[in-house]
Design goal:
This protein is of the alpha/beta class. Helices cover 38% and strands 20% of the residues. It has a 6-stranded mixed sheet with strand order 2-1-3-6-5-4, sandwiched between helices. Belongs to the MoaB/Mog family.
């Protein structure tokens, strides 16, 4: 049974940049994601930049997950190993189901670019309240890899044999 559609189903996607230093002017990763998702025919539901604070991240992502107006949340930043990187800890408890393959595939793809340094990526994905949530590293290159290598297809109802859209609408 195919879970693909014959036409694009535009999704409402929220983008969060987690950074202690970036502003709207310097947020190239968030800007890339906005341009990529709107270029693919989706709608930007909301965009925000937050400092790397587990509770602020959790509060905003919880609001987006609870909103019927948001179907996908993409977070960039806060996935490293420093003491300030708390995105996985903030988001993990909110997920009803983890999409293990997202982080695995992201690391597989980035291995071609970064070699063994990719083991330090804590990229993750999951579903919560019929909302897909994806956490990517903060670099623009990582966002490009995550979007082009995984999300562009998995958020497109026309992608066969399956995609995430059926779980979100």
């Amino acid at each position: 049974m195919s879970h693909a559609s014959q036409e694009l189903v535009p999704l409402n996607i929220a983008v969060l940049t987690v950074s202690d230093t970036r502003t709207e002017d310097t947020d190239t990763s968030g800007r890339f994601l906005v341009d990529a998702l709107t270029g693919a025919g989706h709608r930007l539901a909301e965009k925000a930049i937050l400092k790397d604070d587990k509770y602020q991240i959790r509060a905003l992502v919880s609001r987006w997950i609870a909103s019927p107006e948001v179907q996908v949340v993409i977070i960039t930043g806060g996935t490293g190993f420093t003491g300030r990187d708390t995105t996985p800890e903030a988001v993990g408890p909110l997920l009803d189901t983890q999409i293990d393959g997202f982080g695995e595939l992201f690391r597989h793809i980035t291995y071609q670019e970064l070699g063994t340094s990719t083991v330090q990526s804590r990229a993750l994905g999951g579903l919560a309240n019929r909302t897909a949530v994806f956490c990517l590293p903060g670099s623009t290159g990582a966002c490009r890899t995550g979007w082009n290598g995984i999300l562009a297809e998995q958020l497109d109802a026309r992608h066969k044999p399956c995609n995430f859209v059926q779980h979100l609408v």
